[in-house]
Amino acid sequence: MSAFSFPLLTATAALPAIGAVATAAVPAARRTAAKWLALVFSLATLALALLIAARFDPGAKGPFQLTESHAWIRDFGVRYDLGVDGIAVALIALTALLVPFVILAGWHDADPLEGAEPNRRWRPTQGFFALVLAVEAMVVLSFEATDVFLFYLFFEAMLIPMYFLIGGFGDRAGGRGEQQAAAQRSYAAVKFLLYNLAGGLIMLAAVIGLYAATAHQLGAGTFSLPEIVRARASGALQLGTGTERLLFLGFFFAFAVKAPLWPLHTWLPNAMGEATSPVAVLITAVVDKVGTFAMLRFCLQLFPEASRWAAPVILVLALISIVYGALLAVGQRDIKRLIAYASISHFGFIILGIFAMTSQGQGGATLYMVNHGISTAALMLVAGFLISRRGSRLIADFGGVQKVAPVLAGTFLIGGLATLSLPGLAPFVSEFLVLVGTFSRYPVIGIIATTGIVLAALYVLVLYQRTMTGPVKPEVKTMPDLRVRELVVVAPLIALLLFLGVYPKPLTDLVNPAVQHTLSVVDRKDPQPSVPVTAGPGGGGPGRTAQTQDVEAAK
Amino acid sequence: MENLIALLVAAPLVGAALLLCGGTRLDRAGHWIGSLLAVASFAVGVVLFAGMLGRDAGHRALHQHLFSWIPVGGFRADVAFQLDQLSMTFVLLITGVGSLIHIYSIGYMEHDARRRRFFGYLNLFLAAMLLLVLADNYVLLYVGWEGVGLASYLLIGFWQHKPSAATAAKKAFLVNRVGDMGLSIAIMLMFTTFGTFAFGPVLAATGQTSEGKLTAIGLMLLLAACGKSAQVPLQSWLGDAMEGPTPVSALIHAATMVTAGVYLITRSGALFNAAPDAQTAVVAVGAVTLLFGAIVGCAKDDIKKALAGSTMSQIGYMVLAAGLGPVGYAFAIMHLVTHGFFKAGLFLGAGSVMHGMNDEVDMRRYGGLRKYMPVTFVTFGLGYLAIIGFPGLSGFFSKDKIIEAAFARGGTEGWILGGTALLGAAITAFYMTRVMLMTFFGEERWRNAPTPSPDRPSAEPAAETRGEYAPPHPHESPKVMTVPMIVLAVGSVFAGGLFSIGDAFVGWLEPVTSFSHGHSPVSAGVVTAATMVVLVIGVGLAWLMYGRRPVPATAPRGSLLTRAARRDLLQDDFNHVVLVRGGEHLTRTLVYLDHSLVDGAVNGTAAAMGGLSGRLRRLQTGFVRSYAVQMLGGAAVLVAATLLMRGV
Amino acid sequence: MNPVYYLYLAALLFTIGAAGVLIRRNAIVVFMCIELMLNACNLAFVTFSRMHGNLDGQIIAFFTMVVAAAEVVVGLAIIVSIFRTRHSASVDDASLMKL
């Protein structure tokens, strides 16, 4: 425990939870107050998240910092254990960063329909923002939890507010009947819930199995991640090969549903397509990250041997996700579904990086989580602004927007370029690291994954061409450009994409030690180059000396 | 001195940021800001050049380390610049020609409402291109590499309201991405082989690894070069890229960006030297492309597309030379520089012609323009003489050397390559003379209304539909446009000769390319004579076909080869059938399968559950006594099971 | 006398009761048959209590009686109210709790 006894991690999770309750309690007539309240709470959470990042010391020893530990359910060894490593800090910061933008972008998404004045019982606006904050609280806690049971609890609990966000709030004008839209929404929401519950239940079985194993071998059962890792390393806890693999699969299945990995992905396009775009951002940029994060933290650390055993299969699945998601994105006619399939492709990259088990791969995967969150948020939110202007999600309904709304088109293009990992923007750094990390251990998989960069260019540019260029469609002619509120949402995201693309060092410094720790637990080392070059790498050495040697060699 | 290097990149980058984010406030001054920053970058380049000349050859390279960019494990990419003789040559070419074209664009884009954005993109291009040539490692080079791709995408599609422009832009980016894939795989290979991807250490260590690996890296670099430099098989985008404004074609698709592939190969020279198989591939690509481009250039009636074919062909020469190894690197770069002058000049001339002809691009609608545009005629003519290799002009020196070096390869290969290069020279003379004759000589075909023809690449269909035809009023372009053309024409005339005085250029690049003299089976004099002969044949043939006889205003059907060449030798048709159609079918099938198979399995499970519970519901008959039977039966089963378990 | 005979009697009574529940339609008769089954169980409990020499069975028999009494109160009330509304005491008529 540090001398700093203020429970910072608890506070960061509790603040949005309190905000959710407070927002929900705002009287029906004072909608705007509820919005501002939610925004203030999300900004305060961001401040706390930044405080975590500031207090976190990447160089310190030990896997977790800022730890808090309290007994909770003594009989079953469940503890309220919190702690963060560099990866968690980065993702908490991402979550806390994105939620204010989600709230701002969805400022009018939950306004009651014209004429339908809200009453005391029915307060959709308050409900929407309260649910968003509730999701934030649970996501933050699942990033912080170092107790498997505690993690599981919030991992599952966040489904409830997400279910209501997807099923309860959709795009206003779907172009179809409101009734049909509602039916589609509820289908998407139920699908989301059932898929994730199924994954979660299998994980619950594995969690109980793990507990039983610890109870059997350690005397007292425990759910504590550091304790189990320590016990496994010292040999006090020995799982049979078969048991370990089964437990691993139980955990992995739940995370693969959430991440989502092919072929467990089909809930994502439905959910992202039907939800409003801020909620879609919440799904793909925030909630889904818990899945990939948990692979790193729980799958790899609890079951290192099984992870190594399963890695080849998972890598192939991830590879299929990359190519398959990209190809399907090319074939979509709906903007939001296109972005959803693009996300599936990107999650393939993240999982690829994690299970390549090299420091470039895992470091890249962690950066990828952050960068994908920001870039998808930028693209999706601008797409949302676009869709709300036209009242349609179909690509074919747009055309020539660039001429009437150049700023909107420009931001959309930048979001798209980030999605296709253009160098100079943040996602390039992470995608390249993942590819290099994968290539250095599995060259063939690395090369096939590289085709993803061509396919990404294809779906992004086709989308841009069909919506933004060409002759101006008559329905688009009166489309207004971005408003101030919308610009406030998009501009910081773009600035961040640029900054992290040019100077990702703060992030890599944060993440590297955590990745090294994970790799040491999994007992994997980076493959060494076949010809180690003695000169300082990275262009430290002046090129001239090398070339003079060349001349000599040529002679 | 080192600290100035970053300024080279920073100046245009600041310009791009200002112009693209500045909003409409900068509309009136945007083009001046853009041009000023381009010139500023050039000025910095000149200062650095002067400084470099002041040092002796061994200490000319400069190095500037800015910051550590991506440090993860053993992977360390830095933002660091390296300015040696090769980079310096490029810096001067890029900023020099770039500045001229900025100035030219002030006039050319005068009536475009989005001129500010145009200059923003041009500045962005300069910054990216400078980053490309100044980077000291392959990853940073990759950033510039994709950056110029982005700028090229934005500028080709500058007139986005034209669907053809938007499509061309997308195509250029996609084809380039295929090449980029090669570059990224090459970088990964370097990282796994050497543990680094900085030029210095990698190129120094080429002797310590197997040739197979080096060949693989070399082939991947070649793929990248093919994409960016429009070499076969990734050349298809360059012709379409002419949809962009003409200054863009001059700067990006003639003088600078498309030569990045040559830079890459030359920069990686040490690596290619150690991988002869990769070199052979480079040479083959260059030889094929130089013929391919030349043939396409012969058939195009669109002046810009004819010049694009020519660009492809000339870069083919450079790639060929670069593939020859230390014998050819210096000549490749020399041809690159002279080509930068005369091709940029030719494009600007074409732009000037279009400017005066209501944006008509069909050469069959030109004719006799020399009277109306004297300055354009003279500058274009000098560029023409330079490119066909007229003795004494730039192209003569640089191309002749490449042909010589090709023969010097020795053996059958040498004869094939030399012969190809000679044949290319003949075709070059032919199609350039054709362009010249069709544009500036002959009768004034633009006076009559065009006859509608399905084959004609109609740039201005509106004129035909309107019924009455208003002939254009050809006029000379304003000073702001002609001055850059004159400067480039001067360069086209003198650069080659200047470089060749005492092999100055070769000596200058020696520390980077480690030049070695080849032993040609044919003496230099014979090669020069042969070049002259094919030159005369090419020009003469063109004069017979287009000078002596009047040029029909509508294209004749032409031979099979001509028709194929008009369609870029069917490369696009191949792409369309195999990649576009095939891809569409693939995605459509996958979308269907995703819905029916993957999602179908999920929905099927749900439906099966629903069906099962429907069946089970039937058991609830509502009759109390049937429930009682079930209870009794259940109890009996339980008792029986208990007894059985006990028994066992 | 051998206590096993009481068990045989209890089994016989239970079977009669069960058969009655399954066969008869009149709710009152069904109800009485259920009582018969309960009392058969009571008899078995008491017999076991005697056989094992402890009081557990007798205590449970008292519990059963209490529960049976409560059940009579509720059950008869339901039957009477059904009879009042439908003018029938047949259990097959009250088959509304299906599909």
Task: Give a short synopsis of this structure.
The complex is a heterotrimer of chains A (555), B (648) and C (99). With 555 residues, chain A is mainly α. Chain A contains 21 helices and two strands.
List the main descriptive attributes of the protein structure presented here.
heterotrimer, B: 648 residues, mainly alpha, two-stranded antiparallel sheet, 71% helix, C: 99 residues, Helix Hairpins, oxidoreductase (chain C), quinone binding (chain C), NADH dehydrogenase (quinone) (non-electrogenic) activity (chain C), transport (chain C)
How would you describe what is shown here?
The complex is a heterotrimer of chains A (555), B (648) and C (99). By secondary structure, chain A is mainly alpha-helical. Chain A is built from 21 helices and two strands. Chain A has two domains: 8-114 and 122-524, no CATH class; 525-555, no CATH class. Chain A is globular, with a radius of gyration of 24 Å. Chain B contains 25 helices and two strands. Chain B has helices at 4-21, 30-53, 85-108, 115-134, 138-156, 163-194, 199-204, 211-228, 236-240, 246-255, 260-267, 269-273, 276-299, 303-323, 329-356, 374-388, 394-408, 411-440, 461-465, 479-500, 504-513, 524-547, 560-566, 571-617, 624-647, and strands at 62-72, 75-83. In chain B, helix 14 (303-323) packs across helix 17. Chain B is globular, with a radius of gyration of 31 Å. By secondary structure, chain C is an all-alpha fold. Chain C has a single domain (4-86), classed as Helix Hairpins, CATH 1.10.287. Chain C has helices spanning 4-23, 27-52, 56-86. In chain C, helix 1 (4-23) runs antiparallel to helix 2 (27-52) and helix 2 (27-52) runs antiparallel to helix 3 (56-86). The longest helix of chain C is centred in the C-terminal third of the chain and has 31 residues, at 56-86. Classes of the chains: A mainly alpha (555), B mainly alpha (648), C mainly alpha (99). Chains A and B meet through helix 7, helix 12, helix 14, helix 17 and helix 18 of A and strand 1, strand 2, helix 5, helix 6 and helix 7 of B.
